[in-house]
Amino acid sequence: MGLLSEGSPLTWEETKKLADHVRKHGIQQFINQYHKVTKKLQELREKNHGKKMDSMVELKWGDEVEYILVKFDDENRRVGVNLKATQLMEKLMENEEENKLTIGLWRPEYAEYMVEGTPGKPYESDLAYFNVVESNMKRRREAVLALCNEPDESLLSIVSFPRLGCKNFTVPSHEPTPNAGSSQSLFLPHEIITKGHPRFRTLTRNIRQRRGERPPINIPIFKDTNTPSPFIEDLSVFGDDGSSQKNAKPDHIYLDCMGYGMGMCCLQMTFQAFNISEARLLYDQLAPLCPILLALSAASPIYRGYLSDIECRWNIIAASVDDRTEEERGLKPLKNDKYVIPKSRYDSIDTYLCPCSDKYNDIQLVKDEEVERTLIKGGIDKHMAQHIAHLFIRDPISLFGEKIDQNDEEEMDHFENIQSTNWQTMRFKPPPPNSSIGWRVEFRPTEVQLTDFENAAYAVFIVLMTRAILSFRLNFLIPISKVDENMQTAQKRDAVRAEKFYFRKDITTYSSPRQATDVCMSCITCPEVRAAINQDDSDEYVLMSINEIINGKENVFPGLVPVINEYLSNMEVDIDTQCTIQQYLSLIQKRASGELMTTARWMREFVTSHPEYKKDSVVSNEIEYDLLKKCDGIMRGLEPCPELLGKFSTRTKQDIPPAFAKKERILEEKIGVKNGANK
């Protein structure tokens, strides 16, 4: 969720007055940290008698899985979100503090029914670690389930609770307060926001106050045989004063606050690169894959008790935290605000970071030019400067009184305040102060899946893509505008089977593989790169299906999984890990081809084939109960679901083979530092 500073939260008016202070010091903090890391690397080179040193860190990575706590009422066939996350988090973090070798790290999430877990320590670079991912995810889930003391409690890795905002959807039950509380939602009670950290309620209140209204979220409804046409709800029955009714669109499901976005769950991966150049390369090359993975992991077709005509969460979260004023949205002439901003602060990226990616930056980049000048004057290159200057068009929306005055040489909270509330498909993460952690890249679009097997499969697939990108110098770049189009396509109903996506045809930029460490900020002077930048790009990308992108199209595109298998064929992999990886890749391939369903398609078909479904788009309490009972059984391995999972049998283990563990210890001693990627 980002920065979790402690302290006394300020009101929006107080925060607004300090926005320029936060921006000014945040930029200085970034400049200082950038040069500290550069200086440290230079000192290491000198210590090694001028020998070329590309990094002080090793490749590491981690995943982040979010879960929803639920409580079943078997007698009445109902299920609700279980508001006890803070209670569980206290116990989980106690265990974490007492046991330094804990299997997981736990942090508060937005909702009082959510928990978030990462591995206890980051995974190392050796491929053998791919075989412990699923086991670690299982053990994390078991750690939470062990604290759910009542037999009717469970922990589901689902994106969205189907009837979030319907009557009596919480346990214990609470009522919404449209005229009070942080969100003033018509549907969500204030009590669903976690008590575990004040940041979340502050964000909710300040986003609403900055925008000047509840953030409106309109989701196209799935029009079934008996769905009213037009579908229009009377929001006055929920206590609306008319303002929400004005924002609600016909034939759309209406939602109205941050909780509807940040109250959903996802799967994210963070990779530590060898150096800043490699991190920038990964950031750029992974960005075009974001909509592909969003469609492939689609898992959220139901909102506020209705079947929708979309299957992914992305636009809903974007709307839920859209704090832009009418001026910033271009609805009124600029008077009090500085910029017209095309997107929410939660959206797809707007610029690539490498100089050699420049020609694909084809959308207008709104940026703070004064911030950009300060960064360039401070020794930051143009492309990084414009990226940061783009992030810093936003105001801070959560500030704590104790964190106003900071030591810019030792702290980065002001920088992270704005960086961590730009929730984009990719995030470029500088090393934290006084840490051995390196430059990191976070991959953010993937929807969480029902089982640990699936979540491990998606995580391993993305990590293997990073390895193939670096080893083969793959090039996935297409214009940013086409990535944006793909993001919208990815969220459509059954996009995996029904839609096509812009994707690069020739992903082998160079005739032979080159080491990623050869990529430097002077790469713009490389004749190969300069020629590639100047050539016409009209024939570089085509429309392809997800099946063609993942599995290949004869004489057109090799396919991402075949490329990964080519990479693996050149690597030393133990038999158990190889077996597990192939099971994961098989799942990805079969989801892409349509042989196996996405979670969203499976949920939709479960609802529409339910005997109590009336073909009116309504997901009743009884249907939701049966759906989540089925999800719970699948998660626990008690109910087979071949149409979703096929038949899988991995060889996941708690630990890597002793021989590989010894090799990693030797490498760690050689480097002399310990660092992390999932923090």
Report on this structure.
With 679 residues, the protein is α+β, with helices and mostly antiparallel strands. 38% of the residues lie in helices and 11% in strands. The chain contains 24 helices and 17 strands. Strands 1, 2, 3, 4, 5, 6, 9, 14 and 15 form a 9-stranded mixed sheet that branches. Strands 7-8 form a two-stranded antiparallel ribbon. A hairpin with a 5-residue loop joins strand 3 (104-108) and strand 4. Helix 11 packs antiparallel against helix 12 (382-391) and helix 14 (452-472) crosses helix 19. It is globular, with a radius of gyration of 24 Å. The termini are close together.
List key phrases describing it.
679 residues; alpha+beta; 9-stranded mixed sheet; 24 helices; 17 strands
Mean of all residue-level pLDDT scores: 91
N→C terminal distance: 11 Å
The main sheet comes to: 9 strands, mixed
> Could you tell me the radius of gyration in angstroms?
24 Å
Q: In percent, how much strand structure appears in the residues?
A: 5-15%
Structure classification: alpha+beta
Low-confidence runs (pLDDT<50, min 5 residues)?
Answer: 510-525, 671-676
Shape: globular
Number of strands: 17
Instruction: Classify the helix fraction into a percent range.
Output: 25-40%
Number of helices: 24
